[in-house]
């Protein structure tokens, strides 16, 4: 059976770290892509409608220019029912997803603490037993010398 050299191990760890980094970046990219599509599907029609209303003069945009239009459309969109629904849905979804993760994490922490406590008890017992054996051995040595 061949041994892995330190160089090979180091190169493997580097490749593994790079792969994990790319995986995280891809996951982040996919998440942002999903959010963008979600916002577009939830608010696209509202933003278009508000943009048309403001450019036709039906909105409350006072003044001219793109900044005023963007401000007016943003304000009206954020006040819309669709926006409120769009914001609430991810919160509800995240709660459903995150809550079990938190519970699992807490359970794992409790198990880990219990295991550490047990390991400490076992370690202390072993030390006590070793000390007892050593004292017993020393006593036996003292008796045999006498």
From TrEMBL:
Protein name: BROMI N-terminal domain-containing protein
Pfam family name, one: BROMI_N
Domain of life per record: Eukaryota
Residue ranges of every copy of the BROMI N-terminal domain listed in the record: 28-114
Annotated source species: Hucho hucho (huchen)
């Amino acid at each position: 059976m061949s041994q892995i050299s330190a160089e090979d191990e180091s190169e493997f760890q580097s490749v593994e770290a790079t792969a994990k980094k790319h995986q995280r970046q891809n996951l982040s990219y996919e998440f942002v892509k999903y959010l963008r599509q979600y916002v577009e599907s939830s608010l696209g029609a509202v933003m278009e409608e508000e943009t048309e209303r403001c450019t036709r003069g039906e909105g409350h945009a006072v003044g001219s220019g793109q900044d005023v239009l963007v401000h007016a459309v943003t304000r009206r969109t954020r006040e819309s029912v669709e926006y409120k629904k769009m914001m609430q849905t991810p919160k509800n979804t995240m709660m459903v997803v995150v809550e079990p993760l938190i519970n699992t994490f807490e359970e794992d922490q409790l198990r880990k603490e219990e295991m550490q406590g047990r390991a400490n008890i076992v370690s202390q017992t072993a030390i006590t037993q070793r000390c007892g054996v050593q004292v017993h051995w020393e006593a036996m040595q003292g008796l045999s010398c006498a």
